[in-house]
Design goal:
binds D-xylitol-5-phosphate; binds zinc ion; eight-stranded parallel beta sheet; 219 residues; alpha/beta; TIM Barrel; globular
């Protein structure tokens, strides 16, 4: 199943509730929630109080992407605020295994992400232990960047390694996905597609319906 995870980083925050409702009603599968701390990435976004508000207006899986140093410090807070799936970065955790274990012990699904410069070999010890791997296709920190095509070979390689082990782990791709390149992303083997600008800039309902329709060809 190919899942669409609209990233609200690209939404108009004065209209956030309406934007999420539109995406939800048009068929989005997840809501992607980018948390940035100004340390792990050179930008600051939003955090727990916003997540609590978002939780009140949608029952969709809240796909929380933590771009913060030592995310283990805040896992319980994100759980209490309504997160269902939490993705942490390999580069941000001093104890990656322990952090993943904490996410699972808190009753959430765990994802682990790599930045463009990080080799996917660091993910192998986590095979079978996480719900999802997130392969970043831009340097994390900002929406609206261009997808780095070389990152798609990492997706392909990772899908190959997972298949070889008989694992059907989700692979999420995040950063610069558009109508023009989404098929390359799907062909590389990703099945959870994050999109900010391509969903929230323009007609949200039409954008969601367009991508969901296209995904049907890949199922
Ligand atoms: C970047 C974020 C992305 C971002 C994607 O650090 O993780 O989720 O919102 O935005 P677009 O789709 O506009 O590249
Ligand atoms: Zn993200």
């Amino acid at each position: 199943m190919i899942l669409l995870s609209p990233s609200i980083l690209a939404a108009d925050f004065s209209e956030l509730g309406n934007a999420i409702r539109k995406a939800d009603e048009a068929g989005a599968d997840y809501i992607h929630f980018d948390v940035m701390d100004g340390m792990f990435v050179p930008n600051i976004s939003f955090g727990l109080p916003v997540l609590r508000s978002v939780r009140k207006i949608t029952e969709l899986t809240l796909d929380v992407h933590l771009m913060i140093e030592e995310p283990a410090r805040f896992l319980k807070n994100f759980k209490d605020a309504g997160a269902n799936l939490i993705t942490v970065h390999t580069e941000a955790c001093s104890d990656l295994m322990g952090t993943v274990r904490m996410i699972n012990d808190l009753g959430m699904q765990a994802g682990v992400s790599v930045k463009p410069g990080t080799d996917i070999s660091v993910l192998e010890p986590l095979f079978g232990k996480v719900k999802m791997f997130l392969v970043m296709t831009v340097e994390p920190g900002f929406g609206g960047q261009k997808l780095m095509p070389e990152c798609l070979s990492k997706v392909k390689e990772l899908r190959g390694l997972l298949n070889k082990r008989g694992l059907r782990t989700d692979i999420e791709v995040d950063g610069g996905v558009t109508r023009d390149n989404v098929e390359k992303v799907l062909n590389a083997g990703a099945n959870v597609i994050v999109m900010g600008s391509s969903i929230f800039k323009g007609d949200i309902s039409e954008n969601v319906r367009f991508f969901k329709e296209l995904f049907k060809q890949y199922e």
